[in-house]
């Protein structure tokens, strides 16, 4: 039997506008967590802060309880790529890098975004990793235009990352966003130009490069959530939820007047 293809759930202009509030709340939580992330602070404390911010703005943490995940944020430190569970035992130290993923649900719509923050002063290699990974995200977003193909997004991310000698994670990818946190299609951070489904107005996507300083290979951890780099070198994760419109990509996980949570 031929496998049924899952098609994107297109959003109307009014629905895209409604999604901006969930995006704003998620972006606000991300910024507040980033400001609080400093040496000596535990990822558990950051999780409490994110939940407080999201709830105070009329939202619900999208991650808490999702598939059994216990936290309101994913907090991944250094070689941890994604899905780190917040913990009292994990305290940040000078020179760390912290990837924070926040999600908020407002009026049934989901906003999903992530950023990697330097903790204090970081070394040049880690700073280059953060700079390039952020650029990869923006390049992927720029490729998310009506008439392009899904592979154009992945190609934009992969070509920039690999030109800088960095590894692109394969197993964990971006995705559609809407009433559910994960909708079709998957949005890989690798690919070939001109391949994959055609992008069109009304698609809402989370574009989220996960880029490693060393190999692209990953190592899942025993808790069933956390994923680390195979070689133990640092990783970075940047994400925005965007809508494809006839006028180009529109950022949804953003506070008015702020593209970055810094």
Entry summary:
The chain is 27% helix and 25% strand.
Structure write-up:
It is globular and about 45 Å long. Strand 11 and strand 12 form a beta hairpin. Strands 8-7-9-14-15 form a 5-stranded antiparallel sheet. It has 262 residues and is an alpha+beta fold. The protein contains 4 helices and 15 strands.
What are its keywords?
262 residues, alpha+beta, five-stranded antiparallel β-sheet, four-stranded antiparallel β-sheet, 25% strand, globular
Strand content: 25-35%
Strand order of the largest sheet: 8-7-9-14-15
Oligomerization category of the chains in this entry: single chain
Uncertain stretches = none
Radius of gyration: 17 Å
Query: How much helical structure, as a percent, in the residues?
Result: 25-40%
Total E-strand runs: 15
Give a short account of the largest sheet: 5 strands, antiparallel
Total helical elements: 4
Run of helices and strands: HHEEEEEHHEEEEEEEEEE
Structural category: alpha+beta
- Averaged pLDDT: 96
Which shape, going by the Cα principal axes?
A: globular
Span from first to last CA?
50 Å
SSE blueprint and pairings:
Elements: H1 13-36, H2 43-56, E1 60-61, E2 73-77, E3 80-82, E4 97-106, E5 109-118, H3 124-142, H4 150-163, E6 167-168, E7 174-176, E8 183-187, E9 204-207, E10 210-212, E11 218-220, E12 227-229, E13 235-237, E14 240-245, E15 248-251
Antiparallel strand pairs: 1-4, 2-4, 3-12, 4-5, 6-10, 7-8, 7-9, 9-14, 10-13, 11-12, 14-15
């Amino acid at each position: 039997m031929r496998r049924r293809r899952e098609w994107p759930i297109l959003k109307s202009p009014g629905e895209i506008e409604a999604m901006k509030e969930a995006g704003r709340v998620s972006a606000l939580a991300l910024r507040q967590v980033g400001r609080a992330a400093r040496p000596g602070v535990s990822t558990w404390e950051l999780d409490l802060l994110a939940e407080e911010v999201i709830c105070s703005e009329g939202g619900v943490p999208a991650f808490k309880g999702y598939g059994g995940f216990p936290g309101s944020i994913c907090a991944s430190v250094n070689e941890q790529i994604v899905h780190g569970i917040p913990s009292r035992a994990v305290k940040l130290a000078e020179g760390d890098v912290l990837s924070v993923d926040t999600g908020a649900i407002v009026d049934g719509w989901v906003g999903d975004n992530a950023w990697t923050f330097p903790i204090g002063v970081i070394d040049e290699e880690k700073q280059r990793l953060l700079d390039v990974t952020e650029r990869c995200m923006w390049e992927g977003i720029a490729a998310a235009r009506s008439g392009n193909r899904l592979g154009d997004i992945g190609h934009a991310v992969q070509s920039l990352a690999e030109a800088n000698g960095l590894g692109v994670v394969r197993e964990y990818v971006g995705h559609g966003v809407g009433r559910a946190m994960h909708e079709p299609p998957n949005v890989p951070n690798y690919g070939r130009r001109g391949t994959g489904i055609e992008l069109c107005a009304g698609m809402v996507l989370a574009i989220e490069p996960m880029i490693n300083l060393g190999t692209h290979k990953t190592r899942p951890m025993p808790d069933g959530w956390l994923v680390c780099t195979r070689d133990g070198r640092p990783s970075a994760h940047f994400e925005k939820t965007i809508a494809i419109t006839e006028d180009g990509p529109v950022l949804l996980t953003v506070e008015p007047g702020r593209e970055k949570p810094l």
